Amino acid sequence: MSDASSKIPGALARYRVMAFITGTLLIVVFLGMLRYLPGLDDLEATLDPVMFAVAQIHGFVYMVYLVTVLQLWLLMRWDIPRVIYMAAGGIVPLLSFFAERRVHAEVSAQLEEAK
Question: What is the pLDDT, as a whole number, of residue 115?
């Protein structure tokens, strides 16, 4: 196993954790946006301070998520559309969960082939 391929399992594990955390925070932020629907004016004053904090946390977590995406992408030597797809997982609700499942399956299959 080469030096780069020995780093792949760790990079994959970090990516999986960050995809789950980022996706979960994004769903919370998305659900928090429901307070702007007509008729839910009472929620706006209650949720604004909380949602501001959650949105800020998501922003910082998304930056860490991007680092894990780039690390795995570079180790796997994938093409540009793949990194765009993976990075979009942090800004498109639910996509990080689908991307994580797909990426995990593909990387695991490639690692099994290499053995």
Answer: 75
Low-confidence spans in the chain with pLDDT less than 50: none
Amino acid at 16: R
Output the DSSP codes for the chain.
--HHHHHHHHHHHHHHHHHHHHHHHHHHHHHHGGGGSTT-HHHHHHHHHHHHHHHHHHHHHHHHHHHHHHHHHHHHT--HHHHHHHHHTTTSTTHHHHHHHHHHHHHHHHHHHH-
Phi, psi angle pair for 13, to nearest 5°: -65, -45
Q: Please give the Cα distance from 17 to 114 (Å, whole number).
A: 24
Residue 3, CA atoms < 13 Å, CB-side half-sphere? 0
**Cβ(27)–Cβ(96) under 8 Å?**
no
